[in-house]
Amino acid sequence: MASANISLSEEQFKCSICLDVFTEPVSTPCGHNYCKACIMGYWAQRDVSLCPLCKESFPRTPELRVNTEFRDMLELFNTTRAAGDDSSSPARPGEVPCDFCHGMKRKALKSCLVCLASYCSAHLQPHHTVQALKWHKLINPVSNLEDRMCKKHNKMIEFFCSKDQSCVCMVCLRDDHAMHEAVSLEEEFKDRKTKLECMKMKVNHTLSEKQVMSQMIQNSMKQGWQVMERTKAEIAEAFAALEASIETKKLKLIGLLEKKQRAAERQAEALVTQLRLEIAETRQISTKLEGLSKTEDDFRLLQDLPSISSPSNSKHRFIATTQSPLHVESVRSTVAKIEEMLNKHMEDIIREANLVDEEERVEELTDVIDDELGTIQKQYSIKVTLDPDTAHPSLIISEDRKEVWYGGTKRPIPDVPARFDTLHFVLGNEGFSSGRFYYEITLKGQTGWEVGVARESISKKGVELSLSPEKGCWTLGSYWGRCQANANPPVILALSEKTQKVGVFVDYEGGLVSFYDVDTRTLVYSFTQCAFTASVPFLSNLLALRVITGTPTKTRIYPIFRPSCEDGSISAPLQITPVRYTKGK
């Protein structure tokens, strides 16, 4: 019930214009209360002074004074609310309860290592006011205070033995660990927290590497399936063409045989017709000869003996046409040779495909695991140039817009809105709001530098030292010989001083920015879950008393560069170099 009453009081002490607790409360002639700045700003935007709630208008703008009684009530409310926040909130699951609260246990604010008890804000007051309790050791609330006591001597554990890696009390340190190196628990806690942060950074770095590797393997497998489908289609097309060619030759050969057979049949029919005529003629001669052979008139033999023509050559012509139009054995032999040659070539192709497949698989896995940079270089490299309109006046851009260096002094150039006026940065000319891209920078001669990508909305005026992911900037830099990823907090990296070239890879939809040492072909650092797309903030329209909610919009990101400029002298150029794929070691 207490929380409900506090909530009701908050509503009573809220200005209906800014929707927050009153500051300098004033009352209008109609009796309604507002913040002085809110109501004066409301009237300044209108021709007629009226109350935003009841809409009563006033002939002249009223002279308003701060309502002192209402302000005193407001101060009392704020004080009560602050005290309620500290001491009245009950302990939730997982929080340490106060050991001295009866009934509802409030959340403990501190734990005492001398009393071995935890106290809420109200019960902790004696430790701040009673002289005998002020020396007690107070720590953030913990639930296992008994573990802070030495089981052997019943004394508070205050030290950590570095040799035995154990927590000890004063008596243990004097008796059993006198010659050992020991530090206070606070120092050991601080050292352990530092180690913990380093381990977290290493684990996160390893995790990002494995995530990138996993994505690369998945992409490789997907591309492998696509290549296999294309190869299957090409093989099927090649064999279909071969089958069509063989079928065409077969049909042509059969057609030729049928044509020759039809020609032979026509020739045979002509010969049969001729033979039938010759047979009829021969039969007539035979009949006539038979009659002459029976006559007894010898003179008739002299007059009627018929002449007999030479034998016909039809038999020879017929025998010639019945010979086979081609040698079947030649056809069988030729087809067998073709089949043998095809089988031999196909066995060679299959054997070669098996070897190539194994080599390609090993090579692909090697490329992915040992040299994922090669795949990125081949698929996602782009052309990047510098935008002179964004360059700090001390930076000089080459004519081809591929190099930038520190010129030592500011040049008298126009201060356009897109130009950095304090920080020595320059943006790339090309912006991206989707897809993946990769570019490389040569660092030869650079003692301090910074590269990466940034939102187009980053601050370009004044000193903005926090160019972090929260500010829309994902960069890798070298500062006084130390390389770091500009996360929040920064991550110190072991980048070799001999590194001459750095590659930057961005996956917009995947929210990934990775930096590679091109010389050693290793991943240096990856920003993951990057919020490239900015959201329009929620705008409160105070005059109309309504809220306009923003919606996410596609934000362009640009490559960002900073050459060496620490010592104030003219620096060597920071170069954007063409991406050349070279096989990893």
Q: Multimeric state of these chains?
A: single chain
Strand content: 15-25%
Radius of gyration, in angstroms, nearest whole number: 50 Å
Q: What is the straight-line distance between the termini?
A: 71 Å
Model regions low in confidence, pLDDT < 50 over at least 5 residues:
1-8, 536-552
- Percent helix, as a range, is 25-40%
Overall number of strands: 25
Helical stretch tally: 10
Q: In one word, what is the shape?
A: elongated
Q: Output mean pLDDT.
A: 80
Label the structural class.
Answer: alpha+beta
For the report, how would you describe the main beta sheet? 7 strands, antiparallel
Strand order of the biggest β-sheet = 11-12-25-14-19-20-21
Q: Can you describe this structure?
A:
This protein is α+β, with helices and mostly antiparallel strands and 585 residues long. It is built from ten helices and 25 strands. The strands form seven sheets. A seven-stranded antiparallel β-sheet has the order 11-12-25-14-19-20-21. The protein has a six-stranded antiparallel β-sheet with strand order 13-24-15-16-17-18, with no helix packed on it. Helix 6 runs antiparallel to helix 8, helix 6 packs antiparallel against helix 9 and helix 9 packs across helix 10. The longest helix has 110 residues. The chain is elongated and about 185 Å long. The protein starts with a helix and ends in an 8-residue tail after the last strand. The N terminus is likely disordered.
